[in-house]
Amino acid sequence: MYSFEKINSDELKGKETLAGSVMDYLPINMFKGVGKKQGDYTMIEIGPYDYWAVEYGYSILKSESDLKKILSRVSDPKLQFATDEDTFGPDPFARRYDFSANPLQYAHNQMNIVNHHRDRLLDKFVKDGQSWAKARYGYQLTLSLQSRAVSMMANWIGGSNVNRDKKGDPGNRYPVTPVSSNLQREALDFVLKNSFEDKAFGLNTELLRRMGSDRWIDNLSRSMDSATWPVHEKVMGIQASTLTMILNPTTLGRVYDNEFLVEADKDAITLPEILGKLDDAIWTEIKVPAKGEYSARKPLISSLRRNLQREYLERLVSLSMPGNLRGASSRPLANLATQQLRSLAKRIDNAQKVEGVKLDPYTAAHLAEARELIKKTLDASIVYGSTRI
Hints:
This protein is mainly α. The chain folds into three domains: about 1-80, no CATH class; about 85-245, no CATH class; about 285-389, no CATH class. The protein contains 15 helices and two strands. It has helices at about 5, 50-55, 65-70, 105-120, 120-125, 135-155, 180-195, 205-210, 220-225, 230-245, 250-260, 270-280, 305-320, 330-350, 360-380; strands at about 160, 175-180. Helix 6 packs parallel to helix 10 and helix 13 packs across helix 14. It starts with a helix and ends in an 11-residue tail after the last helix.
């Protein structure tokens, strides 16, 4: 009902509840900012929607006109509520554990909390005399918060606001309205920044060397933990999941359909734009010619980024193959993916031929293998009606 900023202010704290219903599955409101007030941590009473539902449900003896008067408030912003089955639909507001009228504000706040605690894991979180395994536990808590914030905002890509108004209801709202293109772009930018950049994970050698494991047998799940934290597997797991959130057929199909729901002379986010933003965020290192010399210890492309690039490349190859996706969006996606593979091949060629630049062994092998995979994909013979090449 309210912005995240208003929730954490004297204007609202202790005076009004946070959401339309107690069944909205809100997370705990934890504010991390400068010069701002901590609002109520959770609902302080039932919401306006709850009162409204009870009022209608217990008005069985009232006349039809009285009932219609109650229902006429359907477009009141404080009375918006979606049921459990709506959480699988396109409306990004119909989600469990999101927060405020603008979840992007909340998502940024979550990342403020993540960064705040990561900076204090070794100095403050682990006390003298405590096991360093607590540093691993604390970091993984922040990683979970980060992952949930990314997942929450990924829902906005291809999203539509849905309501069940009937013809003649106040406001004459559409049953389906695509989320504004600017909101979708802001959500996509948040997802890319907090999933694909190395610095988003706050890792360094000191932290990684402190993230031990007690492996007590009375905790079976942790007793099987490796003594070393699998940094590449953990980061790649989040990045692969993020790619799936964006490139899954349902999300891409919604983006493609929404292009048709917005007038041609108005702005809309498109499939080419999404693939272009992914390409820019993932292949940053070869957008401009590299300079200087690199080594295995100081590579042009970090190990985390090489893993991400390979994962994305394999997704592009899959998207370009006939029959790998179903639905009307599969054909334009295959065309766009193929075009992006051609563009990427040219950039890799240029990166391999820059004079005066000595690529490190990791990057050289990575780019050579990527170029070979693209070549085989573009030169492949297609068996009509199948996914084989």
